[in-house]
Amino acid sequence: MAESVSFPSTSGPRLAGLIDHPEGPVRGWGVFSHGFTLGKNSPAASRICKQLAAEGIGMLRFDNLGLGDSEGDWGDGSFSHKVADTGQAVRFMNDSGRTVRLLVGHSFGGAAVIAAAHQLDTIRAVASIGAPYEPGHVEHNYDALVERIIADGEAPFLIGGKALVLRRHFIEDVRAADLREQIRTLRRALLVMHSPTDNTVGIANASEIFRAARHPRSFVSLEGADHLLTGRDQAKRAARIISAWADPYLA
Hints:
Layout: E1 2-8, E2 14-20, E3 28-33, H1 43-54, E4 57-62, H2 79-95, E5 100-106, H3 108-117, E6 125-129, H4 146-152, E7 154-159, E8 162-167, H5 168-176, H6 180-184, E9 189-194, H7 204-212, E10 217-221, H8 234-250
Parallel strand pairs: 3-4, 3-5, 5-6, 6-9, 9-10
Antiparallel strand pairs: 1-2, 2-4, 7-8
Helix pairs in contact: 1-8, 2-3
């Protein structure tokens, strides 16, 4: 059974989360960061966290600003904001006595957890799934709107059935984000997971992340998976791999 929680974002509005509690003995705790506009109940977030919980790793998954059950306006956020709020989630868990050792991020969230780990002393292991090497890769989702947003400051943005507002500061922030040095100086164990048939974020991104990283680093090919991990047992398989890989870092 998942526990509903909320905690303040770095900008004030409260973020809604679910803690999937471990079944049986507790091996450790982690935080999951979802993709671009996907939310805590997306297939990847829900299935990965539930499977990790089934294997003894409790996970907090949460909706970013203005998404799902969280307060605020998504348009007020940015990549930097997502990174900072991932840190807020970890501190919330730590303050409740559930010390977080593991960060897991999917897609845009995979880039966010790499960046967030630098701010968090308790983190020992980071797993990215289908992550872009450059956070600005998300621009392909709204490239037709960029000129209008730069000129007018904002524009309506429809994605995945969600009606959002995209603002100039988001574009400027994500373009300025540079993960290379953060990957190189991560000083935590890094697991890079990616599907060779990912048509949303190409496999070359995983190669760039892995090349920039220093040991301990690992790469696992999610053969046959799509970007959103919607296929049968794809997310569960990813979670089982993370569970085994993370074991030395959870104690």
